[in-house]
Amino acid sequence: MSEKKKKLAIIVHSGTLDRLFCVFTLGSTATAMDMETHLYFTFWGLNMLVKGAMEKAGLPATYKHMEEQLKKKLKEMRYPTPYEMLKRMKASGLLKIYACSPTMEMFGIKREDLIPEVDKIAGAAAFLDVASDADITLLV
Amino acid sequence: MGGKIGIDRELDCLGLYCPEPVFRTRQELDNLAVGQVLKVIADDPAAEEDIKRLVKRLGHQLLQLRKERDHFHFFIKKIR
To answer: What is the ipTM metric for this complex?
Structure first.
């Protein structure tokens, strides 16, 4: 494939299961379609990059009563977890993960606390540079 | 298009939902040699449109799409 690949860039601001599924369903599909996928994690999203955090992600307060039922159904559907999806995307070689540096400081998160799939600790300029060159840009 | 299509690999996506049929189809295509044919069976209603678009986007060829009851049978030839 010598032609320029399409590029998807997403700011992952949320740390709840429903929104992580949006990010990783779109992201998985993008990598399957041979699109470069750039995920910039900030705030509650960044908190999900801490080792072990994504496995504990749940629904937001308004929908908390449906969480158990949803998780049971996802198992029945053999639906992958967000972290499983992330690891598969990483294996495609098309995923780049950026961790927001001020968010890390705000929450006292260190580089060694993050999952090993994180590519770079970066700021707004890095995301804007990627996004300005992207075909699709989203905020989740 | 009525003739029998020779297949080199088969992927069962029955009971799997988006993005799984698309993601797994891509993974299987990566394991094929150019010119080989992958058969995918799926029953996610989204798969009909999704896999057609995936195949087109990747530059492969959908030789045939058969619908049998609520099952889709895709025959995909790896082109590149």
So the answer is: 0.90
